[in-house]
Every structure is written in C-alpha cells, then in structure tokens.
Design goal:
Number of strands: 7
Largest sheet: 4 strands, mixed
Helix content: 40-55%
Number of domains: 2
CATH topology of the largest domain: Endonuclease, Chain A
Radius of gyration: 18 Å
Strand content: 15-25%
CATH architecture of the largest domain: 3-Layer(aba) Sandwich
Shape: globular
Number of helices: 9
CATH superfamily of the largest domain: VSR Endonuclease
Strand order of the largest sheet: 4-5-6-7
C-alpha cells in the first residue's frame, strides 16, 4: 500500500479542496469516509478505496453517477487518473464524525501494539487475530524489511499488500517474490493477503493464519500463496 500514506495524511486538506468543487459530496466525505487502501494499477490509474461508516452516506457515495463525480473531482485536484471504490468501514458502522475503532474492546496493552500496525485494515486484522489469542509484533524489522505482522519465535509473518492485486500482474510482484526468497532463506514463512480479503473475508484470513501456526509448530510446511 505504498500509495496509501499520502492519502491518509493528506485527507483533511484534500476534502476541504473537494468541498469547493462539490459541497454536498465533500461534506459527506468529511463526516463519514476515510481512505483504507490505495494502489497503482498496471494501466497507471490510481485505485482509491474509501471506507464509509455511515450507511446513508455510503449509499450516496457508492452510486455509479456519484462515483464518476468523485473520480473526476480527485483527478482535477491531483492531476491523476482515478478509479474510486466506496465500501464499508473495517470496524463497522457508526456515527458521523467518529470513525469506529477496529481496536475497540482490546486490552490497553494490545491496543498500544495494534495502534502502530498501520491503517484501518491492518488494525482490523490485528484485532481479529488478538481476539483469537494470536498476538503479533507489528512492523517487525527483519533483514532490510519490515514485516507487517510477525511471530518471531515461529518465524512467521503476514503482509497485507494492496487491495486486489491477485486479479492482475501487480507492479510490485517481483519485489514481493524477492522479499519472500530472502526471508525464506532466513527460515521465515510469509503469507500475503489483499486488502479486499481482509475487509470481506477477515475470519477466513485469521483461520488461514491459525492453521499455519499449527502447521509451523508441528514442523510441516505451508504451501505458497
């Protein structure tokens, strides 16, 4: 998700500029919507995934004609070709101006660890795993990499990369293979998930990791994904 940080940190200013173009849509974006993924597609277009936690705003913003207006507006403001996807917020629905926290309900010590793991999709995965008794180290340095989620004793890592890269030849596929090979030489097993998998199939992703932990502890190997 190399493109995501610039949208997360620049979102308030970008929304204020969007309000000048379209006050109604800009206000809806401001009160109930935040970027949860952004990635460069092979054709050069930028996919921006917006998580929305207010159902009425999500219905408005995901309408095809409104999505076209969002794409045109962001393209005008940032001089980029955009695809916009409006979807649900990883931690569920909530009240305007108050994004639900994916880490809500976890013990404070776990919340402190999860707070450094990344954006809303990363935090939702961390929280779901923690509720299953799987407590990861976040942003673990290994060699010259940082692993999103790591169990160092098992040399097991989990990466969340992009939104839907399994649907195409991803521009960063070579780098991902190099990372797996270098970490594999150090005894690490890395499992990759897309952002779409984390949002829509979170329990399945945690099940996969729990199964892998069992295999790792018994000395069996995990097939590459």
């Amino acid at each position: 998700m190399l493109e995501l940080p610039r949208f997360v940190w620049g979102w308030p200013g970008l929304v204020e500029r969007f309000k000048a173009l379209n006050p109604m849509l800009g206000t809806a974006l401001d009160r109930s919507t935040r970027p949860i993924a952004a990635e460069r597609r092979p054709d050069g277009r930028l996919l921006l995934v917006l998580g929305c936690w207010v159902p009425a705003d999500r219905s408005l913003l995901s309408a095809p004609e409104v999505v076209e207006n969002l794409e045109r507006g962001f393209a005008r403001l940032l001089d980029e070709k955009f695809d916009v996807l409006v979807t649900r917020w990883p931690a569920g629905d909530g009240q305007p101006d108050q994004a639900p926290d994916p880490l809500a309900g976890l013990p404070e010590e776990q919340r402190m660890i999860g707070a450094i793991c990344g954006g809303a999709l990363h935090r939702s995965f961390f929280a779901a795993a923690a509720r299953r008794g799987i407590l990861f180290d976040c942003q673990q340095p290994v060699l010259h990499y940082r692993i999103d989620f790591a169990l160092p004793r098992l040399r097991l890592g989990v990466q969340i990369g992009g939104w839907e890269w399994r649907n195409w030849t991803h521009p960063h596929a070579i780098g991902r293979r190099e990372r797996e090979q270098e970490l594999g030489a150090e005894g690490w097993t890395i499992v990759w998930f897309t952002g779409e998998e984390i949002l829509n199939h979170l329990d399945r992703a945690v099940d996969d990791v729990a199964h892998l932990i069992t295999q790792r502890r018994s000395g069996r190997q995990w097939p590459s994904r």
